[in-house]
């Protein structure tokens, strides 16, 4: 297709870069899920996140675990940054705006849910795109409105679990 766009009917099109981004995100989240659920370092990360002092008592080196977690986070952020750089321009001063979007994505998806983060990103992106179709000035407002609606009606997020009160 010309311009790297895949047509889905007469009015819907998806850029190939967007499809690649989603495919890589799904693969990355699947890999992270497997790493956290089925490997020793994954169990150590989960144990340290739950209670670092207790993890130390059973022989887990929390400094090593923090280093692994930081390495995973930096690699993930680097990959995300590379995809972001391919599709839009950026500057050093746009960090707070992107941080706000990231916060909204995590809250919409549900704190602690990897797949919820993906779902939250999709929901926020669709809301901003639909808002922009109504009026370009409504793009960001539509995303914030969805965030506030999720926060008001489902505070645990779309895929988050309700916390029991004890």
Layout: helices, strands, pairs:
Blueprint: E1 5-7, E2 13-15, H1 16-38, H2 40-50, H3 52-57, H4 62-87, H5 95-109, H6 114-134, H7 139-153
Antiparallel strand pairs: 1-2
Helix pairs in contact: 1-2, 2-4, 5-6, 5-7, 6-7
Model description:
With 166 residues, the chain is mainly alpha-helical. Helices cover 70% and strands 4% of the residues. The protein has a two-stranded antiparallel ribbon. Strand 1 (5-7) and strand 2 form a beta hairpin. The longest helix has 26 residues, at 62-87.
Q: What overall geometry do the principal axes of the alpha carbons give?
A: globular
The topology string of helices and strands comes to EEHHHHHHH
Euclidean distance between termini CA atoms:
57 Å
The major sheet is characterized as:
2 strands, antiparallel
- Spatially, the strands of the biggest sheet line up as 1-2
Number of strands: 2
Strand content: under 5%
What's the number of helices? 7
Q: Which spans of ≥5 residues are poorly predicted at pLDDT below 50? A: none
Calculate Rg over CA atoms: 19 Å
Instruction: Give the integer mean of the pLDDT values.
Output: 88
Content-based structural category:
mainly alpha
- Helical content stands at over 70%
């Amino acid at each position: 297709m010309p311009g790297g766009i895949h047509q889905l009917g007469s009015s819907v099109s998806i850029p190939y870069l967007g499809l690649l981004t989603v495919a890589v995100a799904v693969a990355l989240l699947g890999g992270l899920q497997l790493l956290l659920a089925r490997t020793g370092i994954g169990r150590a990360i989960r144990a340290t996140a739950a209670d670092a002092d207790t993890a130390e008592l059973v022989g887990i080196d929390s400094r090593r675990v923090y280093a692994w977690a930081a390495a995973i986070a930096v690699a993930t952020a680097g990959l995300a940054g590379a995809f972001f750089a391919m599709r839009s321009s950026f500057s050093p001063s746009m960090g707070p705006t992107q941080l706000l979007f990231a916060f909204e994505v995590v809250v919409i998806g549900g704190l602690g849910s990897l797949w919820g983060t993906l779902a939250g990103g999709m929901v926020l992106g669709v809301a901003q795109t639909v808002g922009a179709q109504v009026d370009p000035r409504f793009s960001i407002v539509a995303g914030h409105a969805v965030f506030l609606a999720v926060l008001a009606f489902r505070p645990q997020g779309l895929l988050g679990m309700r916390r029991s009160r004890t």
